[in-house]
Amino acid sequence: MMKRFALLPAAGVGARMGAGHPKQYLDILGRPMIWHALDAFQRHAGIAGMHVVLSAEDGWWNAYDWSGFDKLKVWRVGGASRAQSVLNGLAAMADELSADDWVLVHDAARPCLSQDLLDKLIGEVDDDAVGGILAMPVADTLKRAADAARIAETVPRAGLWAAQTPQMFRHGLLRAALERAGPEVTDEASALELAGYAPRLVESDTANLKVTYPRDLELARLLLAASA
Ligand code: C5P
Hints:
This protein is α/β, with parallel strands linked by helices and 228 residues long.
């Protein structure tokens, strides 16, 4: 039986939020955002451990209470890109797991992951040879911009999905794929795709939103308050 571990890259600065400090520490119901992202994995019995990657210069983490998280390990090995932070985390956690164990990479900026969605992802991917991700079929009509304010064309949305996290892959396969793909890929699945694999799509839920802009934070607060 393969074990499952969560890996949360949290070494970004969240420039699009325009907040005074990294977005993973913005307050939601009296806790930093990343606390809620971690809580989903702490509570799930199918997750053996959780690992967080921080920037070496992170001066925020130690100000908070993490005492309820007995599965948690923290590594100050953040890189210049998300992919590099994930790769550094995979290297740091390598002693604790085998190449075939699962790693669920999850954004610190997705604080509303429910136990039901986590169950669904694990249920659909656990027996998969490659791995898979939570994602949403695109609902809006898509436009490609000619410049900042004008439409150049409509992009057919049939078959298009918006990738979310967690993204669940075997440690050895993911590490090799990310090493080969380089630091610019924006999610783990892209690295696997570049290596010729076709990761599984598991239909998600709009509640698993990524906090990117200030309005997203208000929505995340409402969703978490409703589920508390
Ligand atoms: O900026 P964005 O929302 O795409 O970041 C996604 C996740 O990747 C966040 O949890 C962020 O902290 C993390 N990240 C990282 N190292 C970087 C850039 C982003 O760990 N250099």
